Amino acid sequence: MQQDEHSPATGAAAAQADNATDAAAQIAELAERLAGTEAQVREHQEAFLRAKAETENVRKRAAADLQQARKYALESFAAELIAVRDSLEAALLVQTAEVESYRNGVELTLRQLASVLEKFHVVAIDPKGEKFDPNRHQAISLLESDEPHNTVLSVMQKGYAMHERILRPAFVTVAKPRSEGGSEGGSEGGSD
């Protein structure tokens, strides 16, 4: 007996062949998608490495710029001070001069120095008559006074600030209330 072409065995073989063809097509499609995904991963890795290298270069440039800024931060300030030094040296070269001419030269040099300090935002702290501020002033002594408590009575040495940052506090004498039955003259640092 001869088997019919459409017998169940032939149908199963044909189904298997179709399944194999579908599986091969799916495998080919998956392989193609995998290759595309791997290419994307390589692109992303390369982009990441370029970005990482660029970031490192920017960091190195910023560090070098910061080092240069620190190294030469005072360059313009120092250049301005050279003129003040020149004035002082010129005054020392004068062989015969009167006190008045030296005084005029010193006053001129002081104005020159004040101009340089002002240009670089260095301001004097001269708080006479102001309320004592421990952030800007350093009390050297306390004196009994009729002035309000914690008023700066005198400035022994001016302070200086640059852009609101204290370079040196002002050294001051500060008022304290007179003690009951105390002496008229006042005393430094407390009663006798």
Structure description:
The protein has 192 residues and is an alpha+beta fold. 55% of the residues lie in helices and 18% in strands. It has a domain of 69 residues: Nucleotide Exchange Factor Grpe, Chain A, domain 2 (Roll). The chain has a 3-stranded antiparallel beta sheet. It has a 3-stranded mixed beta sheet with strand order 2-6-3, with no helix packed on it. The longest helix has 65 residues.
* Radius of gyration, CA atoms, in whole angstroms: 44 Å
Helical residue percent? 40-55%
Along the chain, the helix and strand elements come as HHHEEEEEE
**Mean of pLDDT:** 86
Stated plainly, the CATH topology of one domain is called Nucleotide Exchange Factor Grpe, Chain A, domain 2
Q: What distance lies between the first and last C-alpha atoms, to the nearest angstrom?
A: 142 Å
Adjacency order of strands in the biggest sheet: 1-4-5
- Judging by the overall fold, what is the CATH architecture of one domain? Roll
Q: What profile does the largest beta sheet have?
A: 3 strands, antiparallel
What gross morphology would you assign?
elongated
Low-confidence stretches: 182-192
Secondary structure tally: strands: 6
What top-tier CATH class of one domain fits best? Mainly Beta
Counting H and I runs of at least 4 residues, what is the number of helices? 3
Proportion of residues in extended strands: 15-25%
User: What is the structural class?
Assistant: alpha+beta
CATH superfamily of one domain: Head domain of nucleotide exchange factor GrpE
